[in-house]
Automatic annotation (TrEMBL):
Keywords: Oxidoreductase. This is Uncharacterized protein. PANTHER family: 3-OXOACYL-(ACYL-CARRIER-PROTEIN) REDUCTASE (AFU_ORTHOLOGUE AFUA_6G11210) (PTHR43180), SHORT CHAIN DEHYDROGENASE (PTHR43180:SF50). It holds the Pfam family adh_short_C2. The keyword Phosphoprotein does not apply. It comes from Eucalyptus grandis (Flooded gum). One of its GO terms (molecular function) is oxidoreductase activity. The lineage of its organism: Eukaryota, Viridiplantae, Streptophyta, Embryophyta, Tracheophyta. InterPro entries: NAD(P)-bd_dom_sf, Sc_DH/Rdtase_CS, SDR_fam. PROSITE patterns: ADH_SHORT. Belongs to the short-chain dehydrogenases/reductases (SDR) family.
């Protein structure tokens, strides 16, 4: 991993810290686990996919990483995952509530099934709530800690994804802010990440596109040109929030979208003709 282009050669920024990452077996969770481990953290990968989870754990080092099966909709499993981190490494410094699903890609509300809607909220909202609850129980006695939640550009914009997913990510932002207010008195920081779509297995499946096709579609409408959002960009944003550089950042929703959410793309006030660019 040291030779990977997305990992800085700078000093290890999470040396001595312990991180638990839900949804850590693929996509944003996997890459974040690799980045955190490279920067010195002991990483507990929590996921429902046992084979992928064990594979990621083995690729990192059994001395610095472990895997625990965890369905984030089951409180007993979330509680056990936090207990595993504490019993294995003696503490929990960072909780990254990253597990999430998109649900079926049905744009019309009349086509949405109640069961599908509730399943998305169970994983994306209740799962985050449970992760924060049990992480806080481990962090409050020592009066320190960092909780990061994966939201989405859909935490601030509508019409991009399904009703359930948009609703869930708005709720994650609300949970993040409320928890930041409560837990700040114990020295615990709570923030969330809101990336634009990037080519994770979850996103490519939802949009029905391959990675290159999805990236091209996003690049066509993005505000920041010449840069393509990668999963590594999200992982590095999580690294910033988890590290001491962000020690006074709490209650924040960090958009990773190249400015997409701050502009109505139908307005071209500052569009330069090609010959003037």
């Amino acid at each position: 991993m040291a030779g990977s282009s997305f990992i800085s050669a700078a000093a290890k920024r999470l040396e001595g810290k312990v991180a638990l990452i839900t949804g850590g077996a693929s996509g944003i969770g996997e890459i974040t686990a690799r980045v955190f481990a490279h920067h010195g953290a002991k990483v507990v990968i929590a996921d429902v996919n046992d084979s992928l989870g064990h594979s990621i754990r083995d690729s990192l080092s059994r001395d610095n990483a472990s895997f625990v099966h965890c369905d984030v909709t089951d409180e007993s499993q979330v509680k056990a995952a936090v207990a595993e981190a504490v019993s294995t490494y003696g503490k929990l410094d960072i909780m990254f509530n990253n597990a999430g699903i998109t649900g079926p890609n049905k744009s019309r509300i009349v086509d949405n099934d109640k069961a599908d809607f509730e399943r998305v909220l169970a994983v994306n909202v209740t799962g985050v709530f449970l992760g924060m609850k049990h992480a806080a129980q481990a962090m409050i006695p020592v009066r320190r800690g960092c909780i990061i939640n994966t939201a989405s550009i859909s935490s601030g914009l509508a019409g991009i994804t399904s009703h359930a997913y948009t609703c869930a990510k708005h709720a994650v932002l609300g949970l993040t802010r409320n928890a930041a207010v409560e837990l700040g008195q114990f020295g615990i920081r709570v923030n969330c990440l809101s990336p634009n779509a990037c080519a994770t297995p979850l996103a490519t499946k939802f949009f029905g596109m391959g990675p290159a096709e999805l990236e091209a579609a996003i690049d066509a409408v993005t505000n920041l040109k010449g840069v393509t959002l990668k999963v590594e960009d999200v992982a590095n944003a999580a690294l910033f929030l988890a590290g001491d550089e962000a020690r006074y950042v709490s209650g924040h929703n960090l958009f990773i979208d190249g400015g997409f959410s701050v502009v109505n793309s139908s307005f071209r006030l500052f569009h330069y003709p090609p010959e003037e660019a």
